[in-house]
Amino acid sequence: MSRAFRLLFACWLYAALSPLHAATAAPVVVRFSHVVANDTPKGRMVLQFQALVAARSQGRIQVNIYPDSRLYGDDDEMEALRLGAVEMLAPSLSKFGNVGLPEFEVFDLPFLFSDLAQVHRLTQGAVGQQLLAALGRQQLQGLGFMDNGFKQMSARKPLRTPADYQGLRLRVQASSVLLAQMQALGAQGVALPFGESRRALSSRVVDGTENPLSNFLTQGLADVQSDVTLTRHGYLGYVVLTNPRFWASLAAADRRLLQTALADALAFGNALSATLDQQALTQLRSMPGVRIHALSEAERERLRTAAQPAYTYFERSVDKAFWAQIRKDLAAN
Asked: Residues of the signal sequence (predicted)?
């Protein structure tokens, strides 16, 4: 059965059963689709959310999880959410520029954040609330943010200097800022869905990619990439979404239950992501086919300088006041 047919059938079924659901007060079912493995920080967060909801609703609200793009992938998951084929997603922040929300691409800017505390000044402050509200422009309801940590570069050689990037084809998410970043470094960015990364690397359609170490490990990229350079150049995070019609259809008490369970699951996931990242580094260091390269401060600064054209691109696409607020928040102590 094709994905397009599955999507149309799911939408028909959703519409057909909605009146019956309302009339019989049937248990609430939440289909939560995502594109990564269950043993990643996001996957573990969703499992925690499932467990909390089941316990707190005494089984009346059921969260069904579809990981690893088994139901929908990068290319069609948001359309599936809009059409009611699923109730919840947790896409990466990089996906929203292409759906008319370029403000989200601030998180793609290379070397913008020095640590997660700076990231949280945005996601947990006024900027984060502004971004969640902006999702309504695209018929999406934002519920919260989650970290997956900082990205590192991988290829079949070390990527220490801009010269090392020349002529490479590097997989990125479908973000204009990430494409501009790779171009500035001298490489060609190739936007591919996450689920296709390993195959593209194995077949040499692309030469390398960028990922938090936990993603690198759980996707089996060590089998097709020999070198990981600890650039810590960019942040990868997620926003949890729901369908606004579904959210509005819930009883107020059920919305509160889901929201508080999600807040607790996100706190769990954020704490876990840092731990799993360190564990992944330790594991990768012990793998005989993988070489880990740490940058000097001077090497990192050269990469930072080379990547600056990505900022020019971003600044042209967003409101000046929004960008000024971000810089103010990041400069705060």
From this structure: 1-22
**What is the enclosing helix (H) or strand (E) of 12?**
helix 3-24
Q: What is the pLDDT of residues 301-318, one digit of tens each?
A: 999 999 999 999 999 999
Question: What pLDDT is recorded for position 19?
Answer: 46
Residue type, 187: A
Long-range residue pairs from 59-65, CB within 8 A, at least 24 positions apart, any chain = 59/27, 60/27, 60/28, 61/27, 61/28, 61/29, 61/30, 61/254, 61/257, 61/258, 62/27, 62/28, 62/29, 62/30, 63/30, 63/32, 63/88, 64/29, 64/30, 64/31, 64/32, 65/32, 65/34, 65/38
- Per-chain mean pLDDT for the chain: 92
pLDDT at 332: 83
Calculate mean pLDDT across residues 133-142: 95
CB atoms within 10 A of CB 215: 26
Q: What pLDDT, on a 0 to 100 scale, did the predictor assign at position 12?
A: 55
Strand-pair category, 141-155 with 227-242:
antiparallel
Of the options 3.40.190.170, 3.30.70.1110, 3.30.70.100, 1.10.3720.10, the CATH number for the domain spanning 3-331: 3.40.190.170
* Residue ranges of domains in the chain: 3-331
Q: What is the largest CA-CA distance in the chain?
A: 66
Cβ atoms of 300 and 110 closer than 8 Å: no
